[in-house]
Design brief:
By secondary structure, this protein is α/β, with parallel strands linked by helices. It contains 14 helices and 13 strands. The strands form four sheets. A six-stranded mixed sheet has the order 4-3-5-8-7-9, sandwiched between helices. Helix 1 packs antiparallel against helix 2 and helix 5 packs parallel to helix 13. The relative contact order is 0.10. The N terminus is likely disordered.
């Protein structure tokens, strides 16, 4: 998707005033450079000439004093005219060395509020529910339900706009994308794979937020947007989301309620979640994104989140910690509409799963979605597309190969094939080629049947 755009600070008049002030500051800095040049020349050339002419007295010292006064005056005006960006944080042009040794904002005494809330994802929308219902009534050819009468889902994923740092990263990114397309094809789910940065200020973890907002507004026929990280693999191709369970809820996220009460930064996983297309969700995205702008805001958010959440290491503000913080500090506003999923693996942490696939195939069958046959295996910490990872690259790649083949077997058996082993991309035929495939079609389509 090549849509350009991004967040901006609210208030066009404020932006214009700030731009004019910065222009004037540039002019003043130019004058300052000129005065400094005069002083340098006086110190290297003119000083000797003045000595020889006998004019090194009060006139020279007076000129020097006036130049210094002018410099101080200009610097003072520049300081007074400067407006801090993002509601009180230092300007992005401030020297990095100084910022590393200075705390640029004061943490609240109880670390319960984030004071900088003026970043915008776009024009403010307040009546989206009514606007969406009106659109649906005017466009009956695009209903909010699919052909089976279920709420329409749009699976959204993405990857960086450029190639991975290593070829194997691209290879497994392609496999993970193919896996998602397979699942969506089997279950009638629409899918979007995004490679564009819609907002230059929201990079990395945060790039999903402007994308989800844009898709929400562009597709009012979609009831649920389902974000799935690029490093997640569907490993139960028969399992379907229990959408009826989420009536009255607008955000579905995998997590641990007991850890949330303990303010743990890993109590929720923001790499896979469902977000209903409604006004509440637009408001949540607006509130969530406030810690996302890169640079000073994100660094300041990292310090606040580390002080507020238990067990969080020291790094820049991330979307997962920000979501946990938001739900804890504004519980009354958000939590009534949040469903924390614990009954199946909307997010299954890969180290405890990938070595048990053979046991699962021997004892259970697809369609369970829990620890007996995990719905999604999420390779958190692998980062096979980047240069740094929390686990050895070889282990990540071999585990992703097993997960992909484990899921791919569930698709291939519809056509009479299976991988030779979970470690091998090679396949073998498991159905007699002389038989009529149509005769076994009904049995093959039973995705939750046990593997023989």
């Amino acid at each position: 998707m090549g849509v350009a755009g991004g967040g901006r600070l609210r208030g066009s008049s404020g932006s214009k005033r700030q731009q004019r002030r910065r222009t004037m500051n540039n002019v003043k800095l130019t004058l300052l450079c000129g005065l400094m040049t005069v002083l340098v020349l006086r110190g290297t050339v003119g000083f000797n000439l003045l000595l020889n002419s006998g004019f090194a007295g009060d006139a020279a010292s007076g000129a020097d004093a006036k130049a210094v006064d002018d410099i101080e005056r200009i610097l003072g005006e520049i300081r007074s005219d400067s407006e801090p960006d993002y509601g009180g944080l230092p300007d992005d042009d401030t020297d990095d060395a100084a910022s590393n040794s200075t705390v640029h904002f004061t943490l609240p005494a109880d670390a319960s509020t984030w004071p900088y809330r003026n970043y915008s994802l776009g024009p403010r929308i307040t009546q989206w529910d009514a606007m969406r219902q009106q659109w649906l009534s005017q466009n009956p050819a695009f209903p909010a339900v699919d052909g089976r009468g279920n709420p329409r889902i749009l699976l959204v994923t993405g990857s960086p706009p450029g190639p991975c740092d290593n070829a194997m990263g691209d290879h497994y990114l392609l496999k993970a994308t193919k896996n998602k397309i397979d699942y969506c094809r089997l279950h009638g789910v629409d899918v979007v794979h995004n490679m564009a940065h819609l907002d230059p200020e929201l990079t990395g973890y945060w790039s999903k937020i402007p994308l989800l907002r844009r898709l929400m507004l562009a597709h009012p026929e979609v009831e649920w947007l389902w974000w799935v990280d690029s490093d997640a693999i569907f490993t139960d191709m028969a399992f379907e989301l229990p959408l009826r369970r989420y009536a009255g809820r607008n955000l579905v996220v995998h997590g641990y309620p007991d850890l949330l009460e303990k303010r743990s930064w890993i109590s929720l996983n923001a790499g896979i979640f469902l977000l209903r297309n409604c006004q509440w969700s637009l408001d949540l995205l607006d509130a969530w994104v406030q810690m996302g702008p890169k640079g000073r805001v994100r660094d300041a958010a990292g310090r606040l989140l580390r002080a507020s959440l238990t067990g969080r290491p020291e790094f820049a503000g991330d979307d997962q910690s920000a979501l946990v913080y938001l739900l804890l500090t504004e519980r009354e506003r958000w939590m009534d509409k949040v469903h924390i999923e614990t009954e199946f693996y909307l997010h299954g942490f890969w180290p405890g799963l990938v070595d048990r696939y053979e046991e699962m195939m021997a004892a259970h069958h697809p369609g369970l979605g829990d620890d007996r046959w995990p719905f999604i295996t999420h390779f958190v910490g692998c980062k096979t597309c980047g240069r740094y990872e929390d686990y050895p690259l070889d282990r990540c790649l071999s585990s992703m190969e097993r997960a992909f083949n484990f899921a791919d077997n569930q698709v291939l058996r519809l056509y009479g094939f299976r991988h030779r082993s979970l470690a091998s991309p090679k396949v073998r035929r498991v159905v007699d080629p002389r038989t009529n495939p149509l005769e076994a079609k009904e049995a093959a389509l039973k995705m939750d049947a046990k593997f023989q």
